[in-house]
């Protein structure tokens, strides 16, 4: 249960950390299990602790053992007691919190999409997202405390995620508000909200937050005001690093920091907390504060910093983990580091069990563990091989290396790629984080006295922030800087196994490379041969956004959600073709299948999507599929779709004009059509679900098999915008000639994608449609000529490659 990394190093006691890790897994299970399962899990934990206590007491009477062996056995039995106590405590707390959140009418009202009146506390700033027809919606988290349904008022404790219009823009954090909203269910029981809801009209503000909160909000507002005029990326990055306000970070900077593994810098993280604690310690020494009072002095500063950044779960997590990281980086604190980390995990999960499913929480805990177990010994090993003057560089290299090594498997779940530039990028940025953070805190303190008083510290913070942004931009453009990796749990387990193998065999490999200098060069050649794409072999970029699958004469599209998860828009005519495409993309989980209408060339491949994958829901058109059926109308495949979905236990629901579909913070779709049945033309084609889709910085118009009549209705939805321009158009009906030129002229797509079969009998795509697209300045890509069409890039810089 204890290991020593080096002679004379402090010994690690891992018992509490092991208990916390097992308790973490138990919380994840308790969030998803029914009540009986939660009770059984708690009973198992209680039984384990009882068995451990009994064996500890019994171990004291075993006289045949030596003193040393008896101590080892007792420590193991104590570990069992700890695991049992932690698991039972966390599971009971999680169950109680679930009961409290789900008490009252909110969950049932969400299942039936009821409208009610809610009174609650605002728990987040309104965040803008794309809405229907280019309109902007605001996303606000509200903790409901009272709800009124059918004239009955109930006290509740139910957090909901509210979609609202711009009348909510003036709402502030911790305001108490009353409003009406229409509810719908959350995606799963493990979500950190009970329900989603669309607000009706403006909220009534009943009360403002307390004096301390108002004071901190004023400081935040003053900081935003004085940094608004900073040059370039600094205007968004300085508030993000100091108070966690990411609202003004440019999309390109956010994408580049994500690609280089630097996202922990554009928000309040443990490193910010460490720097604040270090600066406070230095100030305490400068003020000659007595040694016994310095720790309370530092803790007071830490509490004030957390209040400034808002004591939300992510900030509390950063504060606790940062404090432990600061402890771990001291030689004397390494012994207490694992126990402190274990205690922090347990306390944070008691406060908010839903942190267990948060990637941010996992990354914070793993990064802190990396600092505790690896940063010091790796820094010492590197320092031994450096000149004495260069030894301070050792820790600067070891810290990001340790964090990257242990966090890599979780990052793979998020983006299905492994960054090879993360360590050097973070290494170069590290010297600039502390001055940016500390100058930013100084700006907060000076901002209430006016912009003139805060000008100097604000620009002092801007300079290192601009350097950090420049590093992110530069490394994000390094060729091969991000290596594609198998998505989902298999990819994470593979990287974890390789990392563990490297940690165990690292010293041996280093020694072998020293004896045989040619071995590293040979290994590098082998790695390059594996990673560099060979001409003729399909290479999907890790940050792909949309793929039009080569499914023959039909439609099958995929939107990337990251981590092996995707949204499928139509499934083509053949199950095998759609299954093969999803395998090529590494998609193992489907959040949503959107079936635009019930023609065979759009739905018959559904079985291939369901093959070995989990599907959360299927969305379809609400227009009666039998409507308009006649001698020339293709038969509807709705009965077959419903039978297949029922066999797989996948729910089906309909969508219509005005609905908003949110799959990720940066993947949101507004339903532009259908709003009604159009009897002219093909009823089913004109009933196609049409999406205004914003995905990872690109705007896509997904049109199904729309014909001219429905094109005109969609154009009417878009005319409210002054510039309804799209980056990508999925051309309707495989490029048939039945297109409305006015719609194509209005959206003026940079790229047009036509999903069509080779040598089809319909003459698709029509020459007139190709001429129309080209005259609108659009680059046209076809699946019959290039195979899968893979779209990536950002707005104004769309990148397209094809499989052939």
UniProtKB/TrEMBL annotation:
Highest taxon listed in the record's lineage: Bacteria
Listed transmembrane segments: 12-31, 37-57, 265-284, 291-308, 314-332, 362-384, 396-415, 427-447, 454-476, 488-510, 522-540
Membrane protein topology class: Multi-pass membrane protein
InterPro entries referenced in this protein's UniProt entry, alphabetically: ComA-like_MBL, ComEC_N, Competence_DNA_uptake, Metallo-B-lactamas, RibonucZ/Hydroxyglut_hydro
Protein's cellular compartments: Cell membrane
Primary site of residence: membrane
Domain Metallo-beta-lactamase, first and last residues per copy: 553-733
Key words of the record: Cell membrane, Membrane, Transmembrane, Transmembrane helix
SUPFAM superfamilies reported in the protein's UniProt record: Metallo-hydrolase/oxidoreductase (SSF56281)
PANTHER family listed in its UniProt record: DNA INTERNALIZATION/COMPETENCE PROTEIN COMEC/REC2, RECOMBINATION PROTEIN 2
Protein name (database record): ComEC/Rec2 family competence protein
Source organism of the structure: Branchiibius cervicis
């Amino acid at each position: 249960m204890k290991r020593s990394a080096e002679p004379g190093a402090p010994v690690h006691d891992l018992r509490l950390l092991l208990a916390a890790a097992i308790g973490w897994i138990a919380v994840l299970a308790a969030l998803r299990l029914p009540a009986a399962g939660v009770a059984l899990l708690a009973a198992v934990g209680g039984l384990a602790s009882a068995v451990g206590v009994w064996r500890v007491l019994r171990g004291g009477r075993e006289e045949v053992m030596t003193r040393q062996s008896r101590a080892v056995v007792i420590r193991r039995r104590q570990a069992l007691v700890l695991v049992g106590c932690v698991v039972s405590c966390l599971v009971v707390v999680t169950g109680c919190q679930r009961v409290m959140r789900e008490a009252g009418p909110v969950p049932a009202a969400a299942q039936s999409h009821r409208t009610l009146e809610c009174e609650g506390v605002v728990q987040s700033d309104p965040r803008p997202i794309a809405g229907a027809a280019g309109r902007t919606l605001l996303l606000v988290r509200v903790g409901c405390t009272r709800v009124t349904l059918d004239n009955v008022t109930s006290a509740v404790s139910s957090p909901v995620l509210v979609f609202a219009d711009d009348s909510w823009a003036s709402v502030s954090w911790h305001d108490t508000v009353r409003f009406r909203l229409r509810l719908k269910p959350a995606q799963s029981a493990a979500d950190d909200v009970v329900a989603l809801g669309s607000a009706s009209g403006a909220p009534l503000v009943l009360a403002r937050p307390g004096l301390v909160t108002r004071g901190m909000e004023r400081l935040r507002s003053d900081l935003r005001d004085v940094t608004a005029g900073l040059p370039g990326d600094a205007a968004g990055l300085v508030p993000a690093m100091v108070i966690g306000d990411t609202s003004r970070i440019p999309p390109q900077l956010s994408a580049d920091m994500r690609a280089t593994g630097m996202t922990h810098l554009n928000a309040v993280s443990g490193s910010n907390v460490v720097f604040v604690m270090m600066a406070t310690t230095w100030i305490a020494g400068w003020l000659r504060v007595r040694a016994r009072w310095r720790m309370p002095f530092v803790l007071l500063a830490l509490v004030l910093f957390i209040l400034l950044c808002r004591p939300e779960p992510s900030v509390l997590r950063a504060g606790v983990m940062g404090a432990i990281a600061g402890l771990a980086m001291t030689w004397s604190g390494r012994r207490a580091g694992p126990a402190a980390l274990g205690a922090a995990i347990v306390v944070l999960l008691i406060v908010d069990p839903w942190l267990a499913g948060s990637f941010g929480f996992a990354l914070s805990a793993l990064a802190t563990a990396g600092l505790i177990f690896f940063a010091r010994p790796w820094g010492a090993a590197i320092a031994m091989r450096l000149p004495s003057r260069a030894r301070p560089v050792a820790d600067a290299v070891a810290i990001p290396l340790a964090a990257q090594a242990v966090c890599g498997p979780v990052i793979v779940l998020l983006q299905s790629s492994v960054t090879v530039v993360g360590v050097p990028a973070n290494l170069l940025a590290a010297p600039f984080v502390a001055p940016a953070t500390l100058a930013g805190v100084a700006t907060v303190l000076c901002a209430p006295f006016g912009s003139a008083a805060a000008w100097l510290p604000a620009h002092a913070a801007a300079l290192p922030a601009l350097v950090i942004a420049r590093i992110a931009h530069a490394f994000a453009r390094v060729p091969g800087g991000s290596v594609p990796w198998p998505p989902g749990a298999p990819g994470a387990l593979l990287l974890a196994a390789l990392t563990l193998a490297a940690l165990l065999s690292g010293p041996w490999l280093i020694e072998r490379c020293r004896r045989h200098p040619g071995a590293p060069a040979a290994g590098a050649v082998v790695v390059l041969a594996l990673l560099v794409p060979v001409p003729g072999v399909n290479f999907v970029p890790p940050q792909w956004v949309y793929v039009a699958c080569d499914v023959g004469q039909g439609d099958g599209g995929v939107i990337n959600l990251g981590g092996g998860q995707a949204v499928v828009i139509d499934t083509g005519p053949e199950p095998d073709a759609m299954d093969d495409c999803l395998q090529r993309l590494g998609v193992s989980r489907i959040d949503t299948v959107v079936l635009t209408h019930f023609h065979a060339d759009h739905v018959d491949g559904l079985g291939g999507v369901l093959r070995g994958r989990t599907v959360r829901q299927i969305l379809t058109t609400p227009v009666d599929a039998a409507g308009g059926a006649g001698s020339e109308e293709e038969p509807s495949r709705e009965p077959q779709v419903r039978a297949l979905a029922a066999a797989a236990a996948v729910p089906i629901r309909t969508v219509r004009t005005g609905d908003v579909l949110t799959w990720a913070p940066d993947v949101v779709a507004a339903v532009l059509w259908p709003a009604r049945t159009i009897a002219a033309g093909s009823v089913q084609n004109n009933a196609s679900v049409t999406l205004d889709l914003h995905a990872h910085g690109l705007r896509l118009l997904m049109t199904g098999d729309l014909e001219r009549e429905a094109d005109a209705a969609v154009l009417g939805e878009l005319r409210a915008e002054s510039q309804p321009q799209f980056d990508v158009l999925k051309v309707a009906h495989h490029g048939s000639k039945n297109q409305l030129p006015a719609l194509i002229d209005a959206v003026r797509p940079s790229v047009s994608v036509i999903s069509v079969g080779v040598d089809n009998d319909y003459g698709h795509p029509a020459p007139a449609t190709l001429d129309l697209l080209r005259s609108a300045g659009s680059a046209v890509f076809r699946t019959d000529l290039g195979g899968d069409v893979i779209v990536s890039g950002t707005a104004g810089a769309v990148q397209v490659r094809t499989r052939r």
